[in-house]
User: Fold these one by one.
Assistant:
Number 1:
Amino acid sequence: MSWLVAFFVVSVYAVMAVAFGAVDPLLRTAQPKWNPLSWDTKAMSRIVDRILHGDLGQVFVRTGAYIALALVGCVLIGYPVAYFAARVVKRRRGLLMAALVLPFWISYLMRMLAWTNLLQPDGYVNSVLRFLHLMDEPRNWLNGDSYTVVIGLVYGYVPFFILPLFASLERLDGRLIEAGRDLGASAFQTFRRVTLPLSVPGLMAASVITILPMAGDYYTNTYLTSGSPKTTMVGNQIEFFLQRSSQPQSGASLVLLMMAVLFALMLYYLIVTIRQQRAAER
Amino acid sequence: MRSSRRDFLARSAQLGVVLGAGVPLLQACGDSGKKSVSTSAIADGLEPEKGPLRIVNYADYVNPDVIADFQNEYGVEVEITTIFTDTEVVSKIASGAIKVDLQHSMANTSIGNLISGGLLQPLNKSYLPNFANVIASFNDPWYDPGAKYSVPYTFFGTGIGFRADRIDPDDVAAQGWDTLWNATDFAGQVSVLDDEREALIMAMQRRGLFEINTLDPDVINQALADLTELIDLVNVKYNIEAYKDIPEGTTSLAQTWSADLIAGAAGYLPEGVGPEVLGFWHPPAGEYVVGNDSMGVLADAENPVLAHLYLNYLLDNDVSEKNFSWVGYLPALTKLNADYVIGAGYVPENLRVCVPTDEEVAKALVFKPLGVDGDALYEEAWSKFIAGG
């Protein structure tokens, strides 16, 4: 409980104090208002109005779409990898896991910088595609296209997806899978009817862990599109208001609204998890 | 608030998780109102402190060899804290998050607030004999009358940088700012400065409006609408990367700072490509926006004498030339004029236009502080533009 208070309640209240607070007229630093009776809701109202009736609505929709597509990419890449590591590999599993964790040793920023070089018109991605005759002319991948952002998100966050899923798959009771095979199911049927349903908690945990940071990501978009208005995410708007404007209240308001959306998702996850636990206990 | 090309690194270095927005959020909080205004300069003839001299500056915005030379000459250590945006450094200094002696690169729109907020101390010019080297226009700048609190570091103008091997310079000169709106053949290779005032003012200037500190919401909204047109017309980007993107060829034309072309010619042209591929256009004197960064000593500096000596050191002609050769941004010193820097080989002749003339500086349009509500007008418009319009 004290953990929750220290790392969530206090933090959220601080964000609220900024969102409903003021700004130093000279130095533009936020002046949080800790007393709710003196809260000013103008910034929040303006942001909500822009979300409901203006440009910020499309930014939220765009961010949600990018996250959904990136999540699909993470599942398509991450599930086979996690399954292979957890259920197929018998020897050198530690080595494989070390290889999976290795990207964490390099900062996300550096990995994105590497991608900007790889995706340049004269970068290795184009060179390889042309070498394989998959492309005639070099493509400018950094031209402000949504798919580049989605690819970047998948690349950046797929390790976050694999690790919890691996842990979940590794704990699967192998006897259930063997029972499926013994009862005449094919390997695919066993996977579809036994392994996959049992993977759902792991998939959901991996999804939550991946969605949360993706929802606030802004530098993947910044780096991989050279700053295109067509691909702006909510994180870009938060970063702008908090880092580079005299309106930290607007940035904090966006943080709160994004948290509300994510909280709804988390709530759903918790409800599903609790139901599954109760079902398993019966 | 104004940004610069160094800002790009800022947005990269922050953690990007949504709850991680608490990091900049906490940085954004401060207790600036508690500091008292410093009204007196240090006394004459004081011995320098033993240091270390603590400086806050943008990344790669001072020649490391110049720092090393200063350390050797005065026998002190220099510690540089790197920041990324002007807004960031002001809030960190105000909140006490960073303790430094010297702010190396203040935007002129912030200096007035820093002075009023008591964060800068008046300079004692007896420690700054090299101030005599400064271009006359900066002896009494609008942002710091009498240059009591600041000395200029670099200066630059805003115009269009372009690839002269792809776009006829005469066409750019004939079309002016319209060049960006007409560049449909270069869709995806066009950018504007990632700076709300610079970008929106450009759109106003295109319509013949030169009151660059306007607070008229209709004018700002029209500028936003015009700027938003660029998204579909030319797939415009907003960044401060023209200094490398134009030389490397990924951008064909961009609203950018003149110094970016000089820096680009010096360090970012691919092998075998000469500076003749680069071009720069700017509006005529009187319509030309010229900005500068300045240095100042913090009110609570622990090494104020040493900080003064550093300012004086950077205003030395030879030191400044050495610094310019690495940084690419022109110092505001009389000696380092266009003829000199071209003759010395720092600037190619075709980029002479990148060095603002005395007349251009004297008649320059300058960004002035707009107040919180004024800034909010531009920031709101910019937020809408980067959202996609």
Number 2:
Amino acid sequence: MRRTPAFLTTAALLCLAAGPALADKIFVSNEKGNTVTVLDAATLEVIHTIEGLQRPRGITASPDGKHIYVCASDDNLVRVFDSGTYEELPSLPSGPDPELFVLHPSGNPLFIANEDDNIVTVVDVNTRQVLAEVPVGVEPEGMGVSPDGKIVVNTSETTNMAHLIDTTTFEIVANVLVDSRPRFAEYTPDGHLLFVTAEIGGTVSVIDTATNEVVKKLTFEVQGVLPEALQPVGLRVSADGAKAYVALGPANRVAVIDVASLEITDYLLVGQRVWQLGFSPDGKFLYTTNGNSNDISVIDTESDTVTVSVPVGEQPWGVVAVKTTQE
Amino acid sequence: MKGLTRVLCGLAVLCLSGPVVAEGTEYRVAVIRVDAPGPMPISRADLPPRDLGFAGADLGTADNSTTGAFVGQTFVTEDIVVSPETAEAELQRVLDSGVTYIVTLADAAMTVKLADLAGDRALVFNALATDDVLRGKDCRANLLHVAPSDAMLTDALAQYLALKRWDNVVMIEGSHAEDMALAASYRRSAEKFGLTIVEERVYVDTGGARRTDTGHVQVQKQMPVFTQELPDHDVIVAADHAGVFAAWLPYHTWDARPVAGSAGLVPESWSGVFEAWGATQFQTRFEKAAGRYARSEDLQAWMALRVIGEAAMRTKGGDFKTMHDFILSDAFDLAAFKGQKLTFRDWDGQLRQPILLVAGNVVASVSPQDEYLHQVSQLDTLGIDRPETECQK
């Protein structure tokens, strides 16, 4: 009930500010619903639902925002959609059970974690050819890429390492031991730090990319929340590199990290089992997928307040927001 | 034989490469399964696969090896099937060959015997016996339990029954010693979570073949009579560790009541149908390698191997003493597809773990239930807690 007025206020404010923001769209993969929900970022209204995917999880967009890539885990494919027309484009080979991937900053190639086969598959998005299969640790999951595009990092959930892969030779150049069940990896925009979340370990390892050493392990504490429920999963760093946001899974919180001091400054209450995060194209909002409450929460990144939650499909997993040309 | 070959290969590589591998560390593990003669299970679906437990250990070894390859650690596991008569001699042989990590799949009495024989020469992981006595007065300093205890299993079910407000319980227990131990555990759990056992009945095992062409015909007449004239109750709990009668209870009781415990809603450490918390990944890898669904014994053996692998990684190739101290320290934790970190209880060497409540082809629930809190770890709402332990190791 509290939701409606907040929603209306936000929508109204956004409408006033409108202009080019109208063209922003939010794409949410719904793991159980087998759909991708498309929302108008300005009104936060669901404007389209893409159906017929089997267990969609990882989701990302091409740098120009025109193509949406979705890991359809049970299709064993990366499905590709036009962000303006929602038309399906030819799929990419992904290797078995793709869960997460990362696109090279140039828009090509795509690096895909294949959980079942202990490999990272590298796919050319234009020719749809597999360029390489890189053997990594057991249950590869999280994928990140350095801002200069030289290094792709993969986390392996049972090996508990971050594997740093050279994007030209496809060779592993370093392995960094982190805590149990690493789920996600993200660089700061200057490329100096690499954050790796560990879901079961309950920590975020901060790796100095000059030495590949863990310089700090962030731990979390929320009054009234069981320590074992504080499970870091998705993580995003703001474009200016000042703040990082960590989704804490069943703790239903997003932690805010001051990157300069590497201290946690705030915990924001969002929906249930918060999983992955995605910024709006202008960075003013952060969207969180809340798997157990079937909604996304919107965080105003200037004030770090949760402004509204919006229902999407069943068990939302990943989110990406893009600027798209108006139809 | 397969295991033996692998050990020899490992040695050959060591000999050939000489000092080159000195910077790497090799961890040698023996998985000893003691197969005692016993009656067949009621259902042919429950027949034990030949590689029970070993398939899990082999996957654990493969996972450790993949990880170890990045840091020069190798893992060699020998799978050994023995009889109760040959168990000790085989353990002696592997100890003499320098193996320092032993995984046992044996009953309680044999597990203690093997742990005592290993003494301070090896760390022993119990991957099968659920008996509370092994975590109580028969506990050992060198014996860790990756299999859950009876107390954890019965608490897991009792929490759920209490949550459902199925407070009035009829308990039917078998006549074997292990059935009576399990029944005692259910009594303790009932008291702990406020359930009332309104009546207990003992189903006496009179022996004989369990499977005949017309098995269900007799059962259909016997079970209703056996469960007749019970006081008002919400649920029947079967304590049938030996697997003699519980499977025949559902749909045959006099009153229309659900069955739980050794049949119906069953507390288990694992099930081949479980999919939460990344479990599907384990299941898929296991099935690809073993060609069948994983059972509790397989997950337990996998966990034993992963404890060793995890400790080797975290201690950067630590020696026996370093590994032993680390595994029992606060710094150790294991991820095993159960939604939270698993750690060892320092008072009895038991691995804390959530318990699945399996109902046929689905997992109906997982305990501990959210509603049961604990000052240290919610997982300690299951099983024997620190103040209650009888272990003095």
